[in-house]
Amino acid sequence: MSNLVDLRIERVAPGGDAVARLDGRVVFVPRALPGERVLARLAPGKERWSRADVVEVLEPSPERVAPPCLHAERCGGCPWMHWDLAAQRRAKLELLADQLRRLGKVEEWPTIGLLAGEGLGWRTRVEWLAGAWRSGAVLGYRAPKSHDLVEVERCPILAPALQELLADMRGGARALPRQARSVQACVDEGGAAAFSAHGPAGEPLDARDGARVVRRRVAGVEMEFPLLGFQQGNGDLLERFVARVVDGLLPAARAEGGEVLDLYCGSGLFALTLAAEGALLLGVEADRAAVRAARSNATRLGLDSARVEVADARAWLAESARIPPVVLVDPPRTGLGEAVVRELVRLRPRVLRHVSCDAATLARDAGALVRAGWVCTRVDLVDMFPHTAHMEIVLDLELRP
Ligand SMILES: C[S@@+](CC[C@H](N)C(=O)[O-])C[C@H]1O[C@@H](n2cnc3c(N)ncnc32)[C@H](O)[C@@H]1O
To answer: What is the predicted pLDDT for the residue at 167?
Structure first.
């Protein structure tokens, strides 16, 4: 029996795959676009949904474009690269609005704003897989929904320094240990590239890499980040993103004693920008290396008013009888979660700015906060990850008397 099916694509799902229906069943179709008719090969499916791979696009969408990358068809890194950039952004805005309503269980949200930059050359932090050795290193990304390595020669979303590093490693001009199975690289001060090579279990092959830092100047503030710690990955949008995140927080804090709490502060990207503007800053972060970097940044910059504590956010809040009235949160993808939301509801900060890289967990948590009394005054989508369904979001909440 043929498993080829003729599908009309309805929309894209939050994960980025297109969605069609077949005999009442949902079919996820990676790399198809809304409105298209495609001939697709149906994978053996579960009861309520299945997956199908495009064999031929029978009626292409006017939004389909030639991807500006040699490897786009095989590489899993940029699953939306064949989609016009403006259309990708419209889709992200719709997905976010839908998730806020559905998962946030709140009908009315502000109209979502958009901050967007270049589609190519933006990536300042990257992880490559390293495979078998030829004349130089074989480097690349995972194939779609697989652990297989797709070798890449050029990757047009990379910042020039990382593209150069990739070429040098492939050509053997920059040495990579042969037992390397992955490489983490990022742009360092002055546009150079720094990297760390890792073995089969993810262990750094140079034990000193755990203590290495890279420097970046952001909004006029020179910051150090641990080479192996969290760093924002879009260098093109970074300044505008940080400006949006800190915008108005200092005047809000000044009206009430001047103190700002940055929960999940990492190495202090937002915290130190705020401290440099004059805020009394309290940062909380679980990762020791990030806290060391945040503290040494504060000392080097002479920002004596900034304090950073190593702690789990939930435990720290649970032990607090009061917190500053202006709070910034930027949790990992898993979001704040019920326990942190419960503590925030108990402590009732007047201004709560929620930064997130996951629309679903943000919608869940922000929805709970709105139902607990905060008013959402502004939401912006920051397109930090063009050509993928990923997005960064900044959402403002306020308690009104
Ligand atoms: C999305 S990053 C944000 C970092 C910082 N705002 C930045 O932009 O560089 C999330 C941070 O939360 C930290 N983190 C994860 N779980 C945590 C927890 N339970 N308590 C405190 N910090 C945590 C991670 O180490 C990471 O630095």
So the answer is: 94
Is residue 78 among the annotated active site residues?
Answer: no
Indicate whether 239 and 329 sit together in one domain. Answer: yes
Averaged pLDDT, 107-136: 92
Among the residues of 62-111, which ranges form H helices? 85-102
pTM metric for this prediction: 0.94
> Residue 304 sits in which domain range?
86-119+233-399
Distance 280 CA to ligand 1 centre (A): 20
Q: Which CATH number fits the domain that encloses residue 205?
A: 2.40.50.1070
Distance CA 225, CA 188 (A): 10
Number of domains in the chain: 3
Indicate which residue's Cα is closest to atom 2 of ligand 1: 332
Q: Beta strand 326-329 with 306-310: parallel, antiparallel or unpaired?
A: unpaired
Ligand 1 pocket by Cβ (under 6 Å): 230, 232, 264-267, 269-270, 285-287, 290, 312-313, 330-332
Does the structure show a pLDDT above 70 at 341? yes
Q: How many whole angstroms from 264 Cα to the centroid of ligand 1?
A: 4
Q: 62: buried, middle or exposed (CB in 10 Å: 19+, 13-18, 0-12)?
A: exposed
Among residues 69, 155, 357, 376, the one annotated as catalytic is: 357
Per-residue pLDDT band for 173 (boundaries 50, 70, 90) equals: confident
Distance of CA 290 from the midpoint of ligand 1 (Å): 9
Return the number of other C-beta atoms located less than 10 Å from residue 162's C-beta. 23
Interatomic CA distance for residues 88 and 98, integer angstroms: 15
Q: Do 27 and 47 have their domain in common?
A: yes
The strand pairing partners of 40, in sequence order, are 5, 54
pLDDT tens string 133-144: 777 789 999 999
Q: Quick one: tokens of 391?
A: 């997005």
